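Input for the complex:
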Amino acid sequence: MTNHWIDIRNADCVLIIGSNAAENHPICMKYVLQAQAKGAKVIHVDPRYSRTSARADMFIRIRTGTDIAFMGGMIYWILEDMRKNPGNYNLQYVQQYTNAAYIVNSGIKLPGDEGQNGLFSVWDSTNSRYDTATWKYADPANATAESKLLTDNWSGWTNRVADEESAWGELNNNCVLKLLWRNYRRYDKATVSKITGIPQEKLEAVYAEYAKTGATGQAGTIMYAMGATQHTYAVQNIRAYSIVQLLLGNMGVAGGGVNALRGTSNVQGSTDQALLEHILPGYLKMTTDVDAHQTLAGYVGNITPAQTNPPADLGGDNPVNWWKNTPKYVHSLLKAWWPSLDPAVSYNYLPKKKASGVNYTHMGLIQAIGEGKVEGLWIWGQNPAAGGPTSLGARDALKKLKWMVASDIWFNETHTFWKRPTTNGIEVNPEDIQTEVFLLPAAGSFEKEGSVSNSGRWVQWRYKAVEPPEEAIPDLDMMIRLFKRIRELYVKEGGAFPDPIVNLGWDYSDEEEADVIAREMNGYALVPGVPKSAGGTYEVGEMIDWFNDLQADGRTSSGNWLHCGQYTKASATDQQNYPELITVVKGIPSINKARKRGNVDTSPSQVGLYPNWSWCWPRNRRIIYNRAAVDLNGNPWDAEHPVLAWNGTTWVGDVVDGGGNPINLAAAGSQNLPFIMNSEGVGKLWGYGLKDGPIPEVYEPWESPISNLMTVQQNDPAAYIGKLVVDGTDWNRRGTVGDFPIIATTYRCTEHWQTGIMTRNLPWLAELMPEMYVEIGEDLANSPELMIKSGDRVKVTSARGSIEALAVVTKRFQAITVDGKITHQVGIPWHWGYAGRVTGDSGNVLTPHVGDANTSIPESKSFLCKVEKA
Amino acid sequence: MAYGVLCDGTRCIGCRACSVACKSWNKNPADIDKKTSVEGGIEGKSVVSDKTFTFMRFKEIGDGDDFKWAFAKIQCMHCLKPGCETACIVGALHRNKHTGAVSYDKGKCIGCRYCMVACPFGIPTYEWEERMPWIRKCTFCSDRLNEAENGMAPACVTACPTRALQFGERGELIEEAHKRIQASKDADPTGVGKYVDHVYGEEEVGGTAWMYISNVDMTELDLPWLSTEPVTKNARTAMSLLPYYATGMLALMAGIYFITKRKQKIAAGKHEEKKG
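Predicted:
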């Protein structure tokens, strides 16, 4: 999240899209309802009326997978309303804090341009990817601008009578705002209605309602989750939200932001610590086999972005470009891992993944397993046999493993794949499967100490409440002991390349080292003389105050620069207020701020920052990009809910992003722009760094009932299409609407969690929802072909397989009209499997092995199926 | 100063944390073998039982743009004038005047089940499967209520994430309920607001400790329509007439005895005259 949970209560309008917040993040509804009680409208956009919709003021039923059409329509509506009613918007914000006026490369072509056929410029069909040169700014080093947009006098803003064409016609054809208009004017309400199934009056109503948050001092928050991200164009869905929030001035302000509801309980922590194949801790780019990454210097030079200087007529002149500090983070990370070595040497120990040609994500891994490329698999609290797409294929693939070691608290479908019951005509004979499976009993989350990072980036420390049963131990202890054994073997027997193993810093005891790890993640001064930005120098062994003090020359260590500042020498205030939290580290009284539980909101006007409740990254800054919450003089846009304010000498409120004086009160060269993590310092309406487009464009899901109504390009050209081949059979079969006429979507519910292993084994939860079910609209259920009622058993089939489930016939699904045709959607939870106290068929048997163009997250939310009585 | 709980259907998200908290606090076993029920378009056992003191009722109400999915937590209402207490011939059910909890003492129970008949909400349930069956129902967490002044509330209330359940002094909750309804009307340009203008349990059957406000009429959530007349009124009426019945019957019997005796005497006297 750019903001945080409590901040939601500050919103004037809450847009929940691609999320079922009430069912899957129930605690947050406290804040949503608080906002509502203060008069905020709650809007819920979803294919299905759920427990979230029950609390919403406005429910918009949408065809799954059509967020870009919906949001694109909103972008067009806002652009036109901004032009006709500029007083209703914060034009200064759009001008000064976004790249609206920036001019893009003259070669840029949009999907709707003649001859483009739904593609941006330039699609390289030989290599199946875009050449993105034309997506950059006309001058990437020193951006040029359409100056008319940077004045309040542009006749487009002020001349309400002028028609669209002549108003926009005045602007440079390739400036960002004009490009947005050129693209999204094709997203008129009639077209959007045909694609999404949302009636035009509803579109008008919801666009008008949400756009009210564009007024200066008003804030709207967008809450999203898997409904937005589990698509082949997932990242573009999120880009659409970001564009809307930037146009409405909702970034950096209280009650605003683009807010991902992260997976419980620690998906945020897992991505921060880089449990993903494309990053190193702190979202540093993973090392690959390209030439530039052969040396540390080359790698650092390659991944550290050069800044884009803003146009001369922009107020701010310094983009800050915070990622320029990348060298500090990389060097410090290497020192944390191999403390005895120069980073230039230990850099060579980092594995270099193939830059192209191999997909290392979940689906890619399962595919590699199916092809027999993986000998052993260690799974930590995970369940690919029920949790990943195309379950039947994934389960079959596992037999190719020589061994599997699982750390878990229960036996799950993956551990017992070798004796799974017959389904879909597939009989499994355990004698034919050679995989040796070991289950290491793990301690549950209340049986160990450590931290969990919530969606708001708050690192909240947790304590052990009970001892784990019998032999169960925390994952951390397992890892520590395992590595020690591996290292012993390498020391004794040697190996192909023992150095990275043998030299790894791994000086832990066998137990309860979470606090020590937290210190290492923060980082230390390793030698004397390391300077502090606050003045003076660090003692040797003192923990670093914040990541700016990390050094790019091996004098500091830090396991994860995001956490630098969490665990530091204790200030006098903290020693006074939190004496019980003080630990002496290398002789210095220190404090792990994640342990803090100061429950007084000391923020101005009680906007809910709670700076003393735990610690959040970065630097305990609760709302990121908060410089965008003030005008060029440092005065908050919203006087009632200020995040920051300049009091003449300093900033008051949240930790200011990027430091320095307000733009109008700073010296030349230090007029800091707010979006410091972007190399241009302004928010990116136009984003050139992705694989499938600089701005979102409508494409259909891989399995769709209709042809793309916007262009002839049916699907995202860069979408990841998997091949799950096991013994010659590709399980990733693609269905067509002729065979599979019903749209299917999958989801979670409150009562169960993920693949249900934790919840189907807990009696009090299992009894709330014992049976796997499918939600079917009354109109579909009553159709002559089907004739089913609630309680009947039904069979749902996709091109990948079929499942049986209880039918829940409901009014909460209703047919929609898509491109003039009556279209049905059904809903399938994925919490069941064959392991556990209560069992049922897995929803993921039906889902396809395809994923997002940029991240490969599976497209679990939109595919085709057929429904019949079982 | 008796306690109450206000259930606000416009804050409830149907998450059922209350159900699980109740099970946990009372150490009630789960009822896994039951089949899923699909009333109201969701799963779960939709009745109280010997193992389940509370459950969430889901109802799909209306159609099109007026469609609502409404939720109501169902449990003992802890009536101010409990029918079960009046019906119980041994005093096993008793309302604590300080806390408002209607508690059950199995030490006194004789298993007659008159309480089950008397309850207008159908709450007390019976351990049909046990050899020594007892009545079971929500206790209002009366053990936790002893610590109410230290901030303890019934387990379900404590677990509720959205404060749809609010615990406090009954009179204050009634005020709060009406305030919320009015505030919603004031904030609505049409003046209607999102609530149905009624506090269910304020006066029904003489008032209940557990009360509901919601965006739908509570009878649409299958809570019974009830007059303000307490269930106990029937018992009271019957009992209050008892002295009259007793006296009247006594007088009638005495009168009949007198007349019969007198008739006998006259008959005997006539007989005597005939003889003499």
